[in-house]
Amino acid sequence: MSSPGTIAESALSQIWICEPCGMIYDPVDGDPDGGIPPGTPFESVPDTWMCPVCGARKRDFVPYEN
């Protein structure tokens, strides 16, 4: 079983990508201009948030795999 610290670290290390435009959401950086402070895991981003580049919805983002 994972410790809470491991879960939080995992959430902050998962990067997400906007499928329509390729914009990267990095939880470490957040989206301060969009009202999402640094350190906000993608799961905690409101469903009403939109891609700052193309305006796609949060549901249009997928986990980014290197």
Walkthrough of the structure:
It is a single chain. The chain has 66 residues and is α+β, with helices and mostly antiparallel strands. It has one domain (4-63): Rubrerythrin, domain 2, CATH 2.20.28. 15% of the residues lie in helices and 12% in strands. The chain is built from one helix and three strands. It has a three-stranded antiparallel sheet, with no helix packed on it. Strand 1 (16-18) and strand 2 (24-25) form a beta hairpin. The longest helix has 10 residues, at 4-13. The radius of gyration is 12 Å and the shape is globular. The model has no long low-confidence stretch (mean pLDDT 90).
Sequence-ordered SSE layout with sheet pairings:
Elements: H1 4-13, E1 16-18, E2 24-25, E3 61-63
Antiparallel strand pairs: 1-2, 1-3
Task: List the keywords.
single chain, 66 residues, alpha+beta, Rubrerythrin, domain 2, 15% helix, globular
Brief account:
With 66 residues, the protein is an alpha+beta fold.
The tally of domains stands at 1
Taken in chain order, the helices and strands follow as: HEEE
- Which CATH architecture? Single Sheet
Number of DSSP strands?
A: 3
Average of per-residue pLDDT values = 90
Helix/strand structural class: alpha+beta
As a percent range, the share of strand residues is 5-15%
**Helix residue percentage:** 10-25%
The whole-angstrom Rg is: 12 Å
Assembly type: single chain
CATH level 3 topology: Rubrerythrin, domain 2
Shape: globular
Please work out how many helical segments DSSP would assign. 1
Report the biggest beta sheet as strand number plus sense, adding barrel if it closes: 3 strands, antiparallel
Cα separation of the termini: 26 Å
Strand order of the largest sheet: 2-1-3
Broad CATH class: Mainly Beta
